[in-house]
Amino acid sequence: MSISEFALIERYFRHCGVKRGDVRLGIGDDAALLETPPDVELVAAIDTLVAGVHFPAGSPAASIGHRALAVNLSDLAAMGARPAWALLALTMPTADEPWLGEFASGFTALARAHQVALVGGDTTSGPLCVSVQLLGHVSRSTAMLRSGGKPGDVLFVSGTPGDAAAGLALEQQQLTATSEAAARLRDRFLFPTPRVALGERLRQFATACIDVSDGLLADAGKLAHASGCGVEVQYSDVPVSEALVSAVGNAKARELALTGGEDYELCFCVHPDNVGKLRQALPPEQWGYRSIGALREAPGAVVLAADASVMDFSHSGFDHFGS
Ligand code: ADP
Ligand code: MG
What we know:
By secondary structure, this protein is α+β, with helices and mostly antiparallel strands. The chain is built from eleven helices and 13 strands.
């Protein structure tokens, strides 16, 4: 690498994210020293993005920086936690300074929005790979788990899942759309919005929560399985964006909403007695979520048509557009 590792860290990572009073020692020593408040549990998550696997090789650097943090913020959101500190392990083939500048600005913009300090990391040379570890807090024993759901709980999802999968297909030139729809869908893939504020507020109401990264149906199924039950989703209640419908039509839009990945929305369930309080405290039009089904005794994740027949989405997996 032309620029020294030391200079690179100083220039691009020393001032990434926000300054926080609870960072006693950040970047620069062998390890960071962090102060944890009393009465909270530390919440930790890590996710790795590999070029060509988790994002197309040649993705905009700002998007890679954004997504590397966003996927972890989404995991903390699903627990109802408040993010605080991140560590960044970056492996890249060469120290391309314009790339690093954009990467750092993508990471920093999102870190600032969520009051996250970058407190350390590791920089190595090799095929492009970005790993972010995120630490945060949640009041003792109040975190949402996947396992707290019960049959009869009402199931909800935030946002409009499926957009990111279409955005990825657009990025990969497997799909075309009007420029307006394409811009919107691409943005949902390149710059997903982790639902941190919603997650924190849901702790009061949700019995269980998971973030949607592998596809709504698969992740709702994981939540149900962890809760020792099954889940049914009403096909007609699955939210789809106008942009998605305009790009792929109604049926494909619902299929993508159920089985596409990379949405980073929240899927959660609420005891029926608390649904009214949820809607009052967090108006759905304002917070952007809707009910899509319910947990049930019978195991598995099924989608029900208007006539209550079971629809088959088992064929639709990762590869929605062929290649
Ligand atoms: P060591 O060899 O002791 O692990 P390094 O020379 O790798 O230390 O790192 C020096 C300092 O810079 C450490 O505080 C480390 O956490 C930080 N650091 C290294 N790479 C990054 C990075 N990509 N982002 C943020 N901090 C980093
Ligand atoms: Mg050391």
